[in-house]
Description:
mainly alpha
Amino acid sequence: MSALERAAEAFEEDRLDSADFALRAYDEGRADGVARRHDRERGDDADYRVGLADGEREAFEADLIAAIRKAMDGKR
């Protein structure tokens, strides 16, 4: 294997590790958002913040649907 091929392989491994880290950060942020907690130490991580916002939106939607159902049950 040439030096160029080894460098390309190492770059690809680093890229995949970086993608895995980003997905893990997003998933942890989403879980925290759904649970309505915020890890202040991870506030600088953009992937965590995006997941957090998605999780908070998901929790809000669940609360909204529950409130609408509760209000509609009283109207029947």
